[in-house]
Each structure stands twice: as structure tokens, then as C-alpha cells.
Queue: 3 jobs
Job 1
Amino acid sequence: MKEITYRGHRIRTGEKYQPGQDAKQIAQFIRRNIARAKRDGTIPKALHTTVLVRRYANGCSIDIVVRGLPQDAPPFDSNVEAQYSDYGMGINELLSPIYESYQRTEDNSPGDYRSSNFLGFVKWQVVPA
């Protein structure tokens, strides 16, 4: 990720960021990157993912939703609420750089200003046993 500071604003851009790309187009690129990573063996082929675009008044989010997790590999630590297990952290570390490579964020660290072309998260859809 490339980072510059301009007039007190920190601007970070991913290596695949292109000005003017629509969220739908970025989501397609993310899906292709995930498929390529599965073919290359970087991401487990058994991992089922969906890329969702949500639009709202002041922007949008592009989320990678992980589904079909193995029963013996929960994404969260059962002892601590909202803390990743080793498996969950590993998957998060594999998927986060994919969407981050298309992001552009700008923030003013002394203030509360933040702007981004989209918000992105790795989310988990866990089906109870």
C-alpha cells in the first residue's frame, strides 16, 4: 500500500486502486483475485466466499463473506467473545490484502476526518451446529 502525507492528511492507496472504479467493478476484481488465489493454492480451495456490495447514502462497502467453515476450525476463539481463533486470523490475513489493494483512504490524524472509496471487511457466516 502506498502512503503519502499532504497538508496533514494521510492518503493511502492500494496497488490496484484506479480512480473512478465503481464498487461493482471492484467486487468483480476481488472475486477474480480470490479465484486466482484458490487456483494458486494461496487460499484453501474448500473455503467458500461471497463478495457483497452494499450501497448507502454516503458511500458503499465491499465485504468478503466466508461461508462453509470446517466444524473443527471456528473463526473465533470460544473463550473470548469477538476474538479471532488462529484459523480465523489466518484466513483474515489472507483475504484482507485482496480488498485493501483496491482501497483509497484519506484521514486527518489530529481530527476525525476520514474518507474512503469503500469500506471493506472480512465477515463470517457461521452456521450453529
Job 2
Amino acid sequence: MFGFSTIRLAAYGAIITFLIGAFAWYHHSVFAAGKAAVTAQYNADNALRLKQLAAMQMALNTAARQKQEAIAAMDAQYQQVISNDQKANDAAIASIRSGALKLRKRFTCAAASANPVPKTADSSGVSNGQAKSGLQPADAEFLVQLADRADAVVHQLDACQAILGQATK
């Protein structure tokens, strides 16, 4: 029933099946080894990149902390200047109110003395020759407060410039 050609054909089939199986096994083992090598290289590259990223983050955090400390120091200095200016302003106003400090004596007009201008009947102003001299305390206080506000603006601008200079380093 089975002849020599049938056995030969079955033998060839078995050999071909064996070769296909061996090739598939070899291909699978080579592929698995290649995949393992690629995965190991990928993991090593990722680990290196993560270390580099951590180092960069630490450097950025250190730089940010240093800038924050510098800005905090500038702010403390600014607050001290403002406090000192406020104390000086309060002292000047207290001196003005007590009469111990006068800002400036009023000028007298020499030309008006030589060629006096006639007074009008309803004039109630202060003439050059009256005894009061210097700025009135309310006027002097106003000028000191105005100067203090102007100084505060200058200090604010100086502080802003210092902070911007620190931020752009």
C-alpha cells in the first residue's frame, strides 16, 4: 500500500517540517536575544538621561534658591531704607510742629522796597516787610511729606531695578 515513493515523500515532508521548525526556533531565539539587547540599551540610555535630568533640575533649583535669597536680601534692605526714611520724616515733621525747624526764610523783594506797589483797599495779603518769616508749619510739613513720597518712589524704582538685574543674571 505504501510504496517507496510514499515513504520517500513522507521522509522529505518530515525533513522539511523539521527544517522549518528549526528555522523558526533559531529565528525566535535570535530575535529574542536582539530584543533583549535593544531593551537593555534602551534602559541604560533612559537611566543616563534620567541622571542628567536630575542633575539639571538640581542645578536649576539651586540657582532659583540663590536668586530668591538675593531678592529677599534686597527686599530686607529696601524695607530698612523705607523704615529709616519714615523715622527721619517723622522726626522732621515733629521738629517743624514744635517750631525747632524752619525750612527757609521768606525772601524780601528789594525792588518792591525801592519802588513800592500801591496796596489795594481790599488786600489782606502778607507784605514783604511783615515779621513772619519762613514757611508756615503746615506748608513745611506738606513739603517734607511730598519729598518723602518722592523718595519712596525712587527707592521703589531702585529696588525694582536691582531685582530685574538679579533676575536677568
Job 3
Amino acid sequence: MPSLSRSHTVVILSALAGFLGLGYAAVLLSRIPENPPGDGFAAGLTGIFALIVTVSAVLVLFQSGLLAVTLWAHPRARVQNLLTVGAAMGALGMGLRMGFELGQFFEPGSAIDRFLFRVSGTLMGVSLLVTVLGLAASGAGAGCWIIDTVRE
């Protein structure tokens, strides 16, 4: 039963990542001023980033919920494995996406701050790629589950 306990852990951690992502999006939205200085380009970018985080967090919560349902339905091992991988990848993508905020905890101009600034674009790209791959794995798992249910 190690895979069952692993699935429970992934459900809990991915749900936590989803809720943290929603909280992070709320913080981002609260940082946008009502009357932004200049033409509001930076405020618009922050809003777009908050929207990306919100959609990703909802998808991670969906993946976590789908995996939680399978814990009681006891599907075949491949379905559970695909859904577990999908939820884990979604949580990892959310963690990478929230990694952008690590820079604010370091002194501006420090070596760590400069490093995080340099890799921020790569982190965003990798986080989106991992999220899409997680969605594909969860979708494949859900599709296999439906096919297995229809065949029985």
C-alpha cells in the first residue's frame, strides 16, 4: 500500500499548494493601486500574472480533488498513478510560480536577489510547462478511468 499513502500525501500537498496559490493571487491583486502611476502597464502585468496564478491554483485544486475521489473509488493502478503524477506536477508548477516572490525577502542587489531576477523568466516557463504536463497526465488518468468504467 505504499502508493496509496503516497497518493494521500500528494492530495494533501497539492490541495495546500492550490489554496496557497489562491492566497498568493489575492495578495497580488491587493497590491495593484486604484490609480496606478503612468499608463498602468505594470499594474496590468501584475493583474495578468494574478490571473495566471488564479487559474493555475484552481486547476491544481481540481487535480487534487480528482485524485481524492479516486482514493475512495479504487480504480486501476495506472489511473491512480497518472492522477498522482498530474496532481504532483500541478503542485510543483504552483510552487515554482510562487518562487518569484522569494526575491522580496532578500536585500535588493544581493547575489541571491540578482540570481532570482535572472532565472525568473526560466522559472515561469518551467512552471507553465510542468503545469501543462500535469494537466495532460490528469486528463489521461481521467480518460483511462472513464474507459475502464465503461468497459466494466
